[in-house]
Amino acid sequence: MARPITAFTCTACGASHKKWSGRCEACGEWNTIIEEAPLSQGPGRGLGTLKGKPIPLSGLATQEAPPTRANSGIAEFDRVLGGGLVPGSAILVGGDPGIGKSTLLLQAAAAFARSGQQAIYISGEEASAQVRLRAQRLGLGDAPVRLGAETALRDILTTLDAERPDVAIIDSIQTLWSDQIEAAPGSVSQVRATAHELTTFAKKRGTSVVLVGHVTKEGQIAGPRVVEHMVDTVLYFEGERGHQFRILRAHKNRFGPADEIGVFEMTGGGLSEVANPSALFLSERGQPSAGSAVYAGIEGTRPVLTEVQALVAPSTLASPRRTVVGLDSGRVSTILAVLEARCGIPFAGLDVFLNVAGGMRVNEPAADLAIAAALLSAREDIALPPEAVVFGEISLSGALRPVAQTENRLKEAQKLGFSRAILPTSTKVEGMGGMRLDRVPDLTKFVGETFGAG
């Protein structure tokens, strides 16, 4: 077994020697040379004997002011970012093709430029003329945005280093290539390398860099997942092509709350903000009908009311269908199992269809009771009270568990005209005058009180 490589260092002057001797040849001191182990004992030679410079360390207490954020003027976009754009931050925006990523970021670049920030938009997928045509269609032709079309990473970094903009938008990261890597653009190695270089540039130069990323069939940003760890913020653009609503959701944010959402409406003039998404999601709700439940949820820091729709019909198939849109299918299967095991309500031989109106996506466990209410309402053909909202988490035993930020949910429901709420018994609520609270301890009691014996 090879003997580990060691180094000999003088404690008086710090000079390194290949072997021990009684006198340091650099400073002339006697008996100051000691033997030191290498920095690492990993496979191969490890880090060897060469040492680096000590880094300065500091305490947790600081007098530094929080970073100054740049507001774009698009309130929903600033909300998702945590209050504005932080200088030197790296942001990754993903979404399905044609969902509106380029449209939103072009509008954001124009808003930043009009507010006095220097903004550069570099397109790797479209020619400059195509981007100009989109800007003219959106009414942004007079915005002082600097535009470029390039895919070579070296040329892009050279341009950004010379211009030193406040905001740089790269559309998209899959089209860039580095001449140091022998791989096609969009490959794992190219995406990783280009994302690393652009993120490092953002930190060193103080430029906020926004990267557009394609998504896979599973809805994840294409390329290595390490790219999401490199950047400070990861935003996903959600929405169905058949709906006019678009939701920008923060899945990761080092400068603000995660799971915050911004709601936009796709119009002929681009994406317009939706200040009150609850009213918009419930605007098409007609007369009370079986299979509909209004859920009071929390998205980031914002309460949002959405409609959960269910349809239960006899199935002619050996394995009944379970079609879920906007909800976690695994969670829905668990709720169906709890209803059958704890409440004795079977769904065998029945097709189940679930949908969240407006193209919204709900991942919160607090939606469990609303899902169960919509399913039972559709199965029993009994409409829920139109003035009631429903929320609560269902455990595997059938008990209902309280959820966070109950007062915010109830205040949003009261603001939109709802006067009744069905929620778990152990929920602590104070000061909700004028609103009837129906507290339910478990799912069995909820079924009995709302739908009879089932």
Automatic annotation (TrEMBL):
<keyword id="KW-0238">DNA-binding</keyword>
<dbReference type="InterPro" id="IPR004504">
    <property type="entry name" value="DNA_repair_RadA"/>
</dbReference>
<keyword id="KW-0227">DNA damage</keyword>
<feature type="region of interest" description="Lon-protease-like">
    <location>
        <begin position="351"/>
        <end position="454"/>
    </location>
</feature>
<keyword id="KW-0346">Stress response</keyword>
<keyword id="KW-0479">Metal-binding</keyword>
<dbReference type="InterPro" id="IPR003593">
    <property type="entry name" value="AAA+_ATPase"/>
</dbReference>
<comment type="function">
    <text>DNA-dependent ATPase involved in processing of recombination intermediates, plays a role in repairing DNA breaks. Stimulates the branch migration of RecA-mediated strand transfer reactions, allowing the 3' invading strand to extend heteroduplex DNA faster. Binds ssDNA in the presence of ADP but not other nucleotides, has ATPase activity that is stimulated by ssDNA and various branched DNA structures, but inhibited by SSB. Does not have RecA's homology-searching function.</text>
</comment>
<dbReference type="InterPro" id="IPR041166">
    <property type="entry name" value="Rubredoxin_2"/>
</dbReference>
<dbReference type="GO" id="GO:0140664">
    <property type="term" value="F:ATP-dependent DNA damage sensor activity"/>
</dbReference>
<keyword id="KW-0067">ATP-binding</keyword>
<feature type="domain" description="RecA family profile 1">
    <location>
        <begin position="66"/>
        <end position="215"/>
    </location>
</feature>
<keyword id="KW-0234">DNA repair</keyword>
<comment type="function">
    <text>Plays a role in repairing double-strand DNA breaks, probably involving stabilizing or processing branched DNA or blocked replication forks.</text>
</comment>
<dbReference type="GO" id="GO:0005524">
    <property type="term" value="F:ATP binding"/>
</dbReference>
<dbReference type="GO" id="GO:0016787">
    <property type="term" value="F:hydrolase activity"/>
</dbReference>
<dbReference type="Pfam" id="PF18073">
    <property type="entry name" value="Zn_ribbon_LapB"/>
</dbReference>
<dbReference type="InterPro" id="IPR014721">
    <property type="entry name" value="Ribsml_uS5_D2-typ_fold_subgr"/>
</dbReference>
<dbReference type="InterPro" id="IPR027417">
    <property type="entry name" value="P-loop_NTPase"/>
</dbReference>
<keyword id="KW-0863">Zinc-finger</keyword>
<dbReference type="Pfam" id="PF13541">
    <property type="entry name" value="ChlI"/>
</dbReference>
<keyword id="KW-0378">Hydrolase</keyword>
<feature type="binding site">
    <location>
        <begin position="95"/>
        <end position="102"/>
    </location>
    <ligand>
        <name>ATP</name>
    </ligand>
</feature>
<protein>
    <recommendedName>
        <fullName>DNA repair protein RadA</fullName>
    </recommendedName>
</protein>
<dbReference type="GO" id="GO:0005829">
    <property type="term" value="C:cytosol"/>
</dbReference>
<dbReference type="GO" id="GO:0003684">
    <property type="term" value="F:damaged DNA binding"/>
</dbReference>
<feature type="short sequence motif" description="RadA KNRFG motif">
    <location>
        <begin position="252"/>
        <end position="256"/>
    </location>
</feature>
<comment type="similarity">
    <text>Belongs to the RecA family. RadA subfamily.</text>
</comment>
<keyword id="KW-0862">Zinc</keyword>
<dbReference type="GO" id="GO:0008270">
    <property type="term" value="F:zinc ion binding"/>
</dbReference>
<keyword id="KW-0547">Nucleotide-binding</keyword>
<dbReference type="GO" id="GO:0000725">
    <property type="term" value="P:recombinational repair"/>
</dbReference>
<dbReference type="Pfam" id="PF13481">
    <property type="entry name" value="AAA_25"/>
</dbReference>
<dbReference type="InterPro" id="IPR020568">
    <property type="entry name" value="Ribosomal_Su5_D2-typ_SF"/>
</dbReference>
<dbReference type="InterPro" id="IPR020588">
    <property type="entry name" value="RecA_ATP-bd"/>
</dbReference>
